[in-house]
Write a structure and sequence with these properties.
This protein is 38% helix and 19% strand. With 228 residues, the protein is α/β, with parallel strands linked by helices. The chain has a single domain, classed as LmbE-like (Rossmann fold, 3-Layer(aba) Sandwich). α3 runs antiparallel to α6, α4 crosses α5 and α6 packs antiparallel against α7. The chain starts with a strand and ends in a 5-residue tail after the last strand. The structure holds zinc ion.
Amino acid sequence: MRVCAIVAHPDDEVLGPGGTLIGHADNGDEVAVLILGEGFASRGGPRDEVDRAIKELRRAAEKAAEVMGVSRLGRHNLPDNRFDTVPLLDVTKSVEEFVLDFQPHVIYTHHGDDLNLDHGITSRAVLTALRPLPDATWREILFFETASSTEYNAWDATRAFVPNVWVDVSATLERKVAALAAYESEIREYPHPRSTEGIVVAARERGMRVGLPAAEAFYQVRRLIRWS
Ligand SMILES: [Zn+2]
């Protein structure tokens, strides 16, 4: 089986479905990650500083991929926190190219109503690229939650992240934490949700809901069962 995570920023692939991707790799599935954005906002800083930070994030993404058993890592360089300055068609085309090449069966991507706008645009581009056309080869699309973005939005009945799939990450949580350690610059101190302890606490809490020591929670958008 071919599995992929399509994410906005370097570190989202770990924060969201990291433990699950490791589980897939352990299971013998081919795992790919596509990161659409640069992941670093220039905020008017000197260009060489920005370039250095982006390079560092690229190296971190490679290291995290190695820890997680990701065999293919795709990168684009959409501007951080400014995906809305790029036509949605172009974002969708980047996803389409990747999907055409990798032909994934299972796709993990962002919940569409995260506070971070790049996450929402990524989610929309993925749904557009993977719309249910007659010759589609995918079998399942799932949304993940991203610490310090999904829960930061104002939730109401239509925008809340309401999971209906849980994946046991008891055996992979330690490696998820190790993969996150590659992103040194992105990790904060507990009780920030994007901290080592925060990631573990969240996994324990998700697990507890379904009788597991640790879990990652997903919203299954679409599952297609075909006999041929
Ligand atoms: Zn992100």
